[in-house]
Amino acid sequence: MPDFVDEAVLHVKAGDGGHGCASIHREKFKPLGGPDGANGGRGGDIVLEVDPGSATLLEYQRRPHRKAGNGAPGKGGNRAGANGETLVLPVPDGTVVTTLDGEPVADLVGAGTRLVLVEGGAGGLGNAALASPKRKAPGFALKGEEGASADVRLEIKTIADVGLLGFPSAGKSSLIAALSAARPKIADYPFTTLVPNLGVVEAGTVQYVVADVPGLIPGASSGKGLGLAFLRHIERCSMLLHVLDCATYEKDRDPVSDLDALEAELAAYGELTDVDLSDRPRMVVLNKIDVPEARELAEMVRPMLEERGLKVFEISAASREGLRALSYAMGEEVARARAARPAPEPTRVVLRPREIGDASFEVVKVGENAFRVSGAKPARWVRQTDFSNEEAVGYLSERLDRLGIEDALRKAGATEGAEVYIGTEEDSVVFDWAPDLDASVPPTGPRGTDDRLA
Question: How are beta strands 7-13 and 149-156 bridged, if at all?
Answer without folding.
Answer: antiparallel
